[in-house]
Design a protein that fits this description.
By secondary structure, the protein is mainly β. The protein contains no helices and 11 strands.
């Protein structure tokens, strides 16, 4: 069994910052990468950021320059630092881990509103 537990979501004003965390536990071996997706109401789930086991990062165009993904390999933990948040960043954010199969967390709500 593999579990991904996210934390750090919440309500923030436009221009503010949040840091999401995701910790993976269970039978973990040979992780290919970890990342974050998000899903806003009425929209499809989209990639936000992903980091491979080799440290390569890719970001959605809409978050480049504002969000930073990082990973602590020894702890199987991934972070998403989100700065200069905009109302359009409002969504449920899901952590994902690729290890042969794709594993998903339960999601954490991020709301950007004044």
């Amino acid at each position: 069994q593999v579990q991904l537990v996210e934390s750090g979501g919440g309500l923030v004003q436009p221009g503010g910052s949040l840091r999401l965390s995701c910790a993976a536990s269970g039978r973990i071996f040979s992780i290919n990468g970890m990342g974050w997706y998000r899903q806003a109401p009425g929209k499809v789930r989209e990639l936000v950021a992903f980091i491979t086991s080799g440290g390569s990062r890719n970001y959605a165009d809409s978050v480049k320059g504002r969000f930073t993904i990082s990973r602590v390999n020894g702890k199987n933990t991934v972070y998403l630092q989100m700065n200069s948040l905009k109302p359009e960043d409002t969504a449920v954010y899901y952590c994902t881990m690729k290890m042969g199969l794709d594993y998903w967390g339960q999601g954490t709500q991020v709301t950007v509103s004044s």
